[in-house]
Amino acid sequence: MNARGPLLAGVELGGTKCIAALARDGVILQSERWPTGDDAQATLSRINDWLDSAPCPEPIASIGIASFGPLCLDPASSDYGRIVNTPKPGWAGVDVLGILAGGRNIPAGFDTDVAGAALAEGRWGASIGCSVHIYLTIGTGIGGGVVVDGKPLHGLLHPEIGHIRIRRLASDSFPGTCPFHGDCLEGLASGPAIAARAGLRAEALADTDPVWQNVADDLAELMAMLILTLSPQRIVIGGGVAQGHSALLSRVHKATADRLAGYLAGLDARALEAIIVLPTLGDKAGILGAIALADSAFSR
Ligand code: ADP
Ligand code: ZN
After folding, report:
1. Is the pTM of this model over 0.85?
2. pLDDT at residue 1 is higher than 50
3. Which residue from 6, 97, 215, 289 puts its CA 20 to 30 A from 249's CA?
4. Domain shared by 271 and 248, yes or no
5. Statement to judge: residues 130 and 85 lie in one domain
């Protein structure tokens, strides 16, 4: 008989939807979803009720929470487990870790949604075997999680890769949509930025629309920066824009190779195809991220 892993619970808190799941060995056994309402306590209570009443074959061994941020991830801080200054109404300062895991008396993992997705891709997906790898989402916002030797990179806070400022095309004068920075990368290349540039939603834009090249050039700036600073073996690009418009990826490979300009031997557009990839876990990367956090907490 095969040894079975522990029964793990995961909660993914997204800007628009929340998902809870029970899983074993990276396989989701049951899941449920809810809209992320402005009443954080009510939303989290619904999730707790589901976790408490889901028919489990055995007690849950560990729980992982992967949330939109910014988050306080410093266990020494009194704010550990809270969402910090999010502009999302009703959620700033909410103690999501305490509310979802506090009363359970089981190990709990807590990290950003993108760090979770990075861990999940590292454990079960596109980044297996990579010691340094990154998961980026290009969706309503742009964010990224960095994993080094199986652990998400923290520090002062956690990476907020989407808000870097990049060298823009000289021909591009779009002011950007980020409420903090205007033309940071998120302000230039997220779904809402693409919609503002083009005057229609990203999913309605033709492959041939010139906005896509602009977006690819902007994303390539980030790719080159990540490759030069962190030297990742894999950069997985998920999110509604990247997964919905997969033709973007080959433009990003070419534009990244242009920026690296032959400096890193062998890293041409062809070689970058094996490094910059779509998620293997597809739209399950988020919830499996929460499960991966539960798995890490259980193993600690
Ligand atoms: P979130 O970031 O809120 O978790 P998603 O990752 O699904 O959500 O990203 C939503 C964004 O993806 C929206 O801006 C939407 O316009 C864009 N999007 C959805 N489908 C496509 C598509 N087929 N092509 C390009 N963009 C898309
Ligand atoms: Zn910004």
Report:
1. yes
2. no
3. 289
4. yes
5. no
